[in-house]
TrEMBL record:
GO molecular function, one term: cysteine desulfurase activity
Binding site for pyridoxal 5'-phosphate: G71, T72, N151, Q179, S199, A200, H201, T237
Source taxonomy: Bacteria, Bacillati, Bacillota, Clostridia, Thermoanaerobacterales
Enzyme Commission number(s) of this protein: 2.8.1.7
One Gene Ontology cellular component annotation held by this UniProt entry: L-cysteine desulfurase complex
Gene Ontology biological process terms, A to Z: [2Fe-2S] cluster assembly; amino acid metabolic process
Cited function: Master enzyme that delivers sulfur to a number of partners involved in Fe-S cluster assembly, tRNA modification or cofactor biosynthesis. Catalyzes the removal of elemental sulfur atoms from cysteine to produce alanine. Functions as a sulfur delivery protein for Fe-S cluster synthesis onto IscU, an Fe-S scaffold assembly protein, as well as other S acceptor proteins.
Gene responsible for this protein: iscS
Similarity field: Belongs to the class-V pyridoxal-phosphate-dependent aminotransferase family. NifS/IscS subfamily.
Official protein name in the record: Cysteine desulfurase IscS
UniProt entry keywords in alphabetical sequence: 2Fe-2S, Cytoplasm, Iron, Iron-sulfur, Metal-binding, Pyridoxal phosphate, Transferase
Domain Aminotransferase class V: 4-366
Pathway entry: Cofactor biosynthesis; iron-sulfur cluster biosynthesis
Active site: C325 (cysteine persulfide intermediate)
Length: 391
């Protein structure tokens, strides 16, 4: 059976061009970038090229790019290191209730160390209200961290406006752009951010490599102590093959951005319309327009998300309910609950995240099989029977 992969927000396949550029750096050009002989210089050159490519894609200076092990590390670094560096100034951090756990659990950790955290609410579409950000600021606020695009429902947040407010008030602003980079335009200057997290495996690069943009002049603590790599702020021998992969992947993503956004938006809208037309008692989660080009998140009433996932898997379709990191737990998504969805609807959620490799035929196939799966599962639901009879 052909597999249809529609979980590109969880991870993406490495593109051939990316892999081809990475390959020589495993065994042939294996030098440690800190050494002075030719092998080392070759690796250092590759490191510099990758840093330039990442900087160019974000509208940043190469000196502002620090390589990390991925989105989780970038988020941890930005938030903890800013909190520790500014402890004398204040102890208040503002974030949102719909962040990824890499941000939420980091904030919980800091809370245990005496920091005060405000979790901003969101509206029914998952949007943060800029006025709420203004209201939450106190003279103790040292950091605001708001994600650019949500990983579950795809809602794109008003990050540039929030960054503007932070700038006016002299507060550091971090954005988790892990789901945005490579999918929508990202320019650190336009976004008014001081720090920005990204991760290569979300845009057809390898896993375990990411970057943190730190604006020049921002004084935060180093993350890893050891050698002098990454200007002494993130020590450890650089993972050159992965860094090369990140550089190539971000370059390709930026070059193809308009084309990819157009294709994904078309497939996304086709899938949304197809499913909403063919299934009753179904709801689109997230904002209808301010959403990532490839994100479709729906809640199907009277059915469990997990049951739909298993049935889809039997038809060769890979999707997700909640985020990959939390699937396996039976707790409903914190994002959907924060958007005000009742538990039943949060439990019946499904996320399809479309990637560049997906085709219209694949989308048609999902539109064809999901309504039958839902109908079969609902046969076992007395609640659905009652709803259908209008009781
Ligand atoms: N932030 C967001 C919004 C994400 O979607 C993810 C991954 O799903 C992460 C952070 C973590 O990134 P990584 O898997 O590179 O650690």
């Amino acid at each position: 059976m052909e597999k249809i992969y529609l979980d590109n927000a969880a991870t993406t396949p490495v593109k051939k061009e990316v892999l081809d550029e990475m390959m020589p750096y495993f065994s042939e050009k294996f030098g440690n970038a800190s050494t002075l002989y030719s092998y080392g210089r070759e690796s250092k050159k590759a490191l510099d090229i990758a840093r330039d490519r990442v900087a160019k894609a974000l509208g940043a200076d190469p000196a502002e790019i620090y390589f990390t092990s991925g989105g989780t590390e970038s988020d941890n670094w930005a938030i903890k290191a800013a909190a520790y560096a500014l402890r004398e100034k204040g102890n208040h951090i503002i974030t949102t209730s719909i962040e990824h756990h890499a941000v939420l659990h980091t904030c919980e950790y800091l809370k245990k160390q005496g920091f005060k955290i405000t979790y901003l609410p969101v509206d029914e579409y998952g949007l943060v209200d800029v006025e709420e950000v203004k209201k939450a600021i106190t003279d103790q606020t040292i950091l605001i961290s708001v994600m650019y695009a949500n990983n579950e429902v795809g809602t794109i947040e008003p990050v540039a406006e929030i960054g503007e407010i932070a700038k006016e008030r002299g507060i550091l602003f971090h954005t988790d752009a892990v789901q945005a980079v490579g999918h929508i335009p990202v320019d650190v200057k336009k976004l008014n951010c001081d720090m920005l997290s990204l991760s290569a495996h979300k845009f057809y690069g390898p896993k375990g490599i990411g970057a943190l943009y730190i604006r020049k002049g921002v004084k935060i603590h180093p993350y890893m102590h050891g050698g002098g790599q990454e200007k002494g702020r993130r020590a450890g021998t650089e993972n050159i093959p992965a860094i090369v992969g990140l550089g190539k992947a971000i370059e390709l993503a930026t070059q193809n951005l308009n084309q990819s956004m157009e294709k994904l938006t078309f497939l996304r809208n086709k899938l949304i319309n197809g499913l909403l037309n063919k299934i009753d008692h179904v709801k689109l989660n997230g904002h209808p327009e301010k959403r990532l080009p490839g994100n479709v998140n729906i809640s199907v009433e009277y059915v469990e998300g997990e049951s739909m996932l298993l049935s889809l898997d039997m038809k060769g379709i890979c999707a997700s309910s909640g985020s990959a990191c939390t699937s396996g737990s039976l707790d409903p998504s914190h994002v959907l609950l924060a958007m005000g969805l009742p538990h039943e609807l949060a439990h019946g959620s499904l996320r399809f995240s479309i990637g560049e490799q997906n085709t219209e035929e694949e989308i048609d196939y999902v539109i064809q099989v999901l309504p039958d799966i839902v109908a079969r599962l609902r046969e076992m639901s007395p609640l659905y029977e009652k709803a259908r009879e209008g009781k």
